[in-house]
């Protein structure tokens, strides 16, 4: 299996092409698993271990509402995130992983495809507190309810050549969305932004795939 290793850490919106599909799938069939490196981004004024840990194959990320962002002087929200070093501008790329969202996490982006022409990101998966934890695309389309305190399998396929993103949760295609324009893209996961007092996710089995069929 291709490996991964940690390296040093260094909005107008297009409407989605709505496809409310609920079909069991194997999102990685026909794709090539690809090795990657990553960095961890946490509040600049705290030791990394105060907001991130890794043990027994699990990455744990947590933030509080009064946390700083990742470098002194930045104006974005608090974050504890894995930043995959897979920068790309074209081709087909896929993120895969299992996430456990701790109850109480709210107003928090748990996974993102960074890079867009009209906004900073192509897509964000965001947890809201309603209905036992609701995962939405930003604050818009509902992708899953009752999402707290269980492992959820996540696949996000990005066809950068055609500007489309396909989101699967537990091997079910939840929607197809426009990617908000060509840019340099990469994958991130963890916790970013917060509307409650504390947000936490745990991620495992994070994989990077390339060059396969999308929307199957």
Automatic annotation (TrEMBL):
Gene3D superfamilies: 2.60.120.200. Residues 1-32 are annotated as: Disordered. InterPro entries: Alginate_lyase_2, ConA-like_dom_sf. Residues 1-11 have a biased composition (Polar residues). One of its GO terms (molecular function) is hydrolase activity, hydrolyzing O-glycosyl compounds. GO terms for biological process: carbohydrate metabolic process. Residues 40-207 form the Alginate lyase domain. It comes from the Bacteria. Residues 12-22 have a biased composition (Basic and acidic residues). Pfam families: Alginate_lyase2. PANTHER family: BINDING PROTEIN, PUTATIVE, EXPRESSED-RELATED (PTHR33681), OS12G0171100 PROTEIN (PTHR33681:SF4). This is Alginate lyase 2 domain-containing protein. It comes from Niastella vici.
């Amino acid at each position: 299996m291709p490996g991964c290793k940690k390296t040093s850490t260094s909005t107008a919106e297009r409407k989605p092409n709505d496809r409310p599909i609920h079909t069991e799938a194997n999102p990685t069939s026909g794709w090539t698993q690809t090795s990657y490196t990553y960095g961890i981004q946490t509040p600049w004024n705290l030791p990394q271990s105060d907001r991130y840990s890794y043990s027994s194959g699990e990455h744990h990320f947590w933030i509080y509402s009064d946390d700083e962002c990742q470098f002194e002087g930045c104006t974005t929200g608090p974050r504890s995130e894995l930043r995959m070093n897979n920068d790309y501008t074209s081709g087909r790329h896929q993120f895969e992983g299992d996430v456990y969202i701790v109850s109480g996490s709210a107003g928090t982006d748990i996974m993102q495809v960074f890079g867009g022409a009209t906004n900073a990101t192509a897509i964000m998966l965001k947890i809201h507190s309603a209905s036992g934890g609701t995962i939405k695309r930003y604050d818009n389309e509902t992708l899953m309810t009752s999402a707290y305190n269980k492992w959820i399998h996540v696949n996000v396929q990005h066809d950068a050549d055609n500007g489309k993103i396909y989101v699967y949760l537990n091997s079910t295609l939840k929607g197809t969305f426009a990617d908000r324009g060509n840019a340099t893209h990469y994958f991130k996961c963890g916790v970013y932004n917060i509307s409650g007092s504390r947000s936490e996710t745990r991620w495992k089995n994070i994989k990077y795939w390339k060059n396969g069929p999308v929307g199957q």
